[in-house]
Design brief:
alpha+beta, 29% helix, Creatine Amidinohydrolase, binds 2-amino-4-trifluoromethylsulfanyl-butyric acid, binds cobalt (II) ion, globular, EC 3.4.11.18, metal ion binding
Length: 249
């Protein structure tokens, strides 16, 4: 069941989203070779708590950390770790902020130091794919229009779209209906209505889209060991068009 949000509720989610966006901007400043994702995770948890917010992921189905930190061939749900990041890594930091009971969800991929041209291209295309999807998040369109915009662009660039993880509705809980796949057919799926709030969060691989899950039962990584990236925003569908609640601009 899709839970439609009022303007006031979207305003509450926007406050959570603005806080989340400031966290990403802080991470962008401190991320470099030598820092660990464990340190970043602790920074995020403290930053949120000092501002009266909570990291919703911690304890969610037993997930042990405030953030997911997925390095190189890790697709998502990477565990923060004490090993320092190395020059040339790419790392996706994903988090859900709970502020006064309303949630926002945003993941961002970061280059660490100097990355290869191929990694840079993966980051650029993945980010562009997110924004192409967001453009389609308008009243009257269907979920498949978002899915298709992302898939057709990414595949035209020779990269692949992960199938096993999708975007989702969000509100007072992290995962609500509908599901938002990043692959699919235009004109298909649920019709978008004013007051829906969804995430769009394409995970894009250089090689095959298939993944395996680590022994920790959480971390997904590419089956061929090639790089994966992800950018995610929380989006409200409004009469005026898509409103990016986690915008960093
Ligand atoms: N932020 C993720 C999403 O987009 C959720 C991570 S799973 C968790 O759905 F358990 F770590 F929270
Ligand atoms: Co999400």
């Amino acid at each position: 069941m899709v839970i439609i949000k009022t303007e006031q509720e979207i305003e509450m989610m926007k406050r959570a989203g603005e806080l989340l966006a400031t966290v990403h901007k802080e991470i962008a400043k401190i991320i470099k070779p030598g820092i660990s994702t464990y340190e970043i995770d602790q920074f995020v948890e403290e930053y949120l708590k000092e501002r009266g917010a909570n990291p919703e992921q911690k304890g969610y189905h037993g997930y042990p950390y405030a953030t997911c930190a997925s390095i190189n061939d890790e697709i998502c749900h990477g565990f923060p770790r004490k090993a320092p990041l190395e020059d040339g890594d790419i790392v996706t930091i994903d988090m859900v902020v709970n502020l006064d009971g309303w949630l926002a969800d945003s993941a961002w991929s970061y280059p660490v130091g100097n990355v290869s041209d191929e990694a840079r291209k993966l980051l650029d295309i993945t980010k562009k794919a997110l924004y192409l999807g967001i453009e389609k998040a308008v009243v009257g369109n269907r979920i498949g229009d978002i899915s298709y915009a992302i898939q057709s662009y990414v595949e035209s660039e020779g990269f692949s779209v992960v199938r096993d993880f999708v975007g989702h509705g969000i509100g007072r809980s992290m995962h609500e209906d509908p599901q938002v796949p990043h692959f699919g057919t235009p004109g298909r799926g649920l019709r978008l209505m004013e007051g829906m709030v969804i995430t769009i969060e394409p995970m894009i691989n250089i090689g095959k889209y298939a993944c395996t899950i680590d022994d920790n039962q959480w971390t997904a990584r590419t089956i061929d060991g090639k790089l994966s990236a992800q950018y995610e925003h929380t989006i409200a569908i409004t009469k005026e068009g898509p409103l990016i609640l986690t915008d960093q601009e």
